[in-house]
Amino acid sequence: xxxxxxxxxxxxxxxxxxxxxxxxxxxxxxxxxxxxxxxxxxxxxxxxxxxxxxxxxxxxxxxxxxxxxxxxxxxxxxxxxxxxxxxxxxxxxxxxxxxxxxxxxxxxxxxxxxxxxxxxxxxxxxxxxxxxxxxxxxxxxxxxxxxxxxxxxxxxxxxxxxxxxxxxxxxxxxxxxxxxxxxxxxxxxxxxxxxxxxxxxxxxxxxxxxxxxxxxxxxxxxxxxxxxxxxxxxxxxxxxxxxxxxxxxxxxxxxxxxxxxxxxxxxxxxxxxxxxxxxxxxxxxxxxxxxxxxxxxxxxxxxxxxxxxxxxxxxxxxxxxxxxxxxxxxxxxxxxxxxxxxxxxxxxxxxxxx
Length: 354
Fold this sequence. Notes:
Layout: H1 19-39, E1 43-44, H2 46-49, E2 51-58, H3 64-72, E3 79-86, E4 97-104, H4 110-129, E5 138-140, H5 146-153, E6 158-161, E7 164-167, E8 169-177, H6 179-207, H7 210-234, E9 237-238, H8 240-270, H9 276-308, H10 314-335, H11 338-341, H12 346-349
Parallel strand pairs: 1-9
Antiparallel strand pairs: 2-4, 2-8, 3-4, 5-7, 6-7
Helix pairs in contact: 1-7, 6-7, 6-8, 7-8, 7-10, 8-9, 8-10, 9-10
């Protein structure tokens, strides 16, 4: 039976000999990431910045300038609009739908002021797009009262598909996050990532040797810093789902690293006189097929989510796609070569012969 092989059965790529180039590239990328974070910062979402978020879906292209003028006239402070087309419509019977997220800064005056601002935005949307319906965006037309039918027919945008009438706009999500809560979320998110990395170091230390634990943590810090730099550069929204993505990247990268480390430990006991550089190259090449196949299949799933999963999870999947690349890179070019920098000794892993 034919089996797909993306990597030849026996490879002899000299990864370790390229470690100094990898150190320089990674160092420059890490410095650039930190510089971007300090100068440009992150595009914090409502989870971290606080404010009002309303996500709306319509079945016709949104005139973003018209919506910006409408919401700007409400005098609610900074209003940020972000639109995207819902590609899920490619696989449905209805016409394409369009999403727009409306973010408004926190209003002074407590909870009542936030609710009043939300009502103002909804009224503006009704003036522009007609009568809103439930989250599904569909209703049974025949079950409506005569007044409701007249109101629907008088709305600006609607269409009929398989006996169902779909509104021109529906509210998909609405949230209000206060500044106190958002500040706590930033601290909690940073602590979650920090504790995860410390737990990883302890686990690797107990399972292997301290050099492996430190090497794994350096690789994970490399991944986290470069992910922060990626979001600083692209200015994609940084919210709680991105913290979840970073933690997932940590787990993914760790899994790759442990697979190679396990082979290193096994081969250290098997080949007691092979130089460490040659042995490390052998270990990486032996696990290369598994690494490439895992990364490729993960990427295929993530790309499908990115293009067809909608705007809500787009930031998460973008972070994960980036994380697959840098996690694979750091497992090969950072975690294993750094064992040489940390002066891993064969005697630490293999009992001496009498």
